[in-house]
């Protein structure tokens, strides 16, 4: 009988080894919580008295709630003193808490000793691969997930001249990697299964692309395309189409606008393409089934100097994350026939605002050239993103989700440091 002693908690090992203890009373103390599994050794327990305490029925009480369901002992009422919305309720009657006591974190899993500009991933024959554009080493590094060592290891290396983008496309069970370069033109490589390496498959027209800044690959119906956004003053962003023998230029989009990013998405069931630019607001193209071309449809007003645009969905609602290097980046929501701003995110020195999700948690990763990068988490009640975690990456240029072996990773490219691989982990706050 340990009653009326003004105890607020006990040691996790207070009752260790007391396997013959049959009756225990902790009544009329000031106990707010008990450590997880404090009663684990009480094999013979018949009766437990916890009356007259001030239990906080938050995450710390989750284990006790579950234990009350499984124990054979007779347990007195465990009355909640808090939080406010739980006051006066019996923990014995509950099957869940309002707060399910689950949080997440991003921890460094691995570092790749190379600077990088962009990262892509693909799956092929039950293996997961990652392509990393590393202009400082004139290479497109290909990594493979090692199921034994549980890390990413070097698989192949595509060499070139100042490679800024490596985009994978799988067509009819063949893997192609589009390699965009600042010098020497852009090329397409094909995976040779016999040699277990990538070999050059095709050159793209050098005259079409002067300064590639982004590659976007997509499918419309049964046809495959990719577009390269050209960021030079004399650039001509170009759409390429697959014709069973290779990719060939199919449509020239607007020129002279220093395009920074291309984003393919479906709006109201129709294929669209958004081109962001340093010299005008983002423009929206719509695919014409009659002409089999993209037709300029409109723009996104009041959004000058956008360096990247990414779309994402939360519960069927469509959003855009628009990155600006100077001023605030913006989150926009698709409504009746237009995008409307719902949130401004301070982002001086940012080149990427990347949306991604794991399970039912939606994030935004905001890179920064001047300070810590930020990861934001969607608040479903407020319908905005809140700051969640700071991560240190030198001049990040992309964030890419890679999932394998039931584990989730974020690859963060760095323009001035090593490429970082973060693992997304689940934390049970009740532990």
TrEMBL record:
Gene3D superfamilies: Ribonuclease Inhibitor. Keywords: Glycoprotein, Leucine-rich repeat, Repeat, Signal. InterPro entries: Cys-rich_flank_reg_C, EAR, EPTP, Leu-rich_rpt, LGI_related, LRR_dom_sf. The keyword Ligase does not apply. Residues 53-102 form the LRRCT domain. Pfam families: EPTP, LRR_8. This is Leucine-rich repeat LGI member 2. The gene is LGI2_2.
